[in-house]
């Protein structure tokens, strides 16, 4: 895969993810303006993740069978059509359908692209490089989508946040999947696995019988859960410390920037250390940082911790993706990626609730110590990882 081909796919991922991120900002604001209660708005926002939980594995299987262009073409249609409908009819039922479809489209897109670039790589080092660049796309999209949508909502109408502004915002977001499709339609399909080589009906849960896959999934869950709990608990801890909203936002922003920045230099690091070594060190650093967090009392101290945590967590995902491709049979890589995404999204729903309950019982600071113990215990699993003979290579 050439650099130009990779760049087109990364930009396509930014477009689809920015569509979802922008809609995730616009729909709650529109619903609240229409007089809906916070509970209804929360349900609306949850629909973005719910669809990914249930569609992830089927989307992975579909990508295994049909490659890249057909799945991404369908994802682009699924993302664009409800936005056009929402621009024409900005009402709650249409917004709910839009949340489901755009969330599912974003999930299907990342699974398809991860599968494609993982198979296009010629070596584990190149695979890590590709995944590092692709992992930057969601961070960029999470800035472009909400920021652009917010500007249109504030300034595109006759007055701030009127119905015309929301219509224009949804219409503009609908253009992004079209751009994504124009970029993806030129993608080169990779050779498919012969159908006769994998006879018999299989299920996604069969992958969990492989010890190496279970271990990778567990390590990936540790990283994802740490990410989610940090995003949820830091505002609570900051509030307890008397920090302002802008200071808390700056702390989370520093975390996001450092997580994206480490992925730029990760390919150079990966040439000098093995994935197992990097994941082990990153996990130890993460556990130490979570244990130190409760002792921070000033914004600058929490910012330093957040930036260091962003580096340690940000470098793990591309390595996990590379190892998952290395240990999963080629004809089931999309299915494995779907199972991973389903687990992450389910964790994103459950872990904040668990952390919130623990915070109510033992305090926000103690939650960090619980996470530190759990993450630290994961190092015993990382020691057992063995990828000397990957099925996928």
TrEMBL record:
Domain Major facilitator superfamily (MFS) profile: 1-390
The keyword Membrane is assigned to this record: yes
Record-annotated membrane-spanning stretches: 7-27, 39-58, 70-91, 97-118, 130-153, 165-184, 217-237, 243-266, 278-295, 361-382
Keywords of the record: Membrane, Transmembrane, Transmembrane helix
Keyword Amino-acid biosynthesis included in the entry's annotation: no
GO terms assigned for molecular function: transmembrane transporter activity
Pfam family, one: MFS_1
PROSITE patterns registered for this protein in UniProt: MFS
Protein name: MFS transporter
